Amino acid sequence: MTAPNQNHHDGVRLRHRAEIKRATSPHFARTTLQRGTYSPMEAKMQSVSVVRTTLAAVTLAVTTQVGAAPISYGTYYEDLFINGVSCINGFCRVNFSQLPSNNLFMLSKINCNAESVSPLTEAYVSISQASNGPTIGRIVWFNAGPGTFVGSAYNYSFEADVRMLMGQGRFPYVVLFAGGGGSITARCGIVGDLVPPTP
Question: pTM for the complete prediction?
Answer without folding.
Answer: 0.70
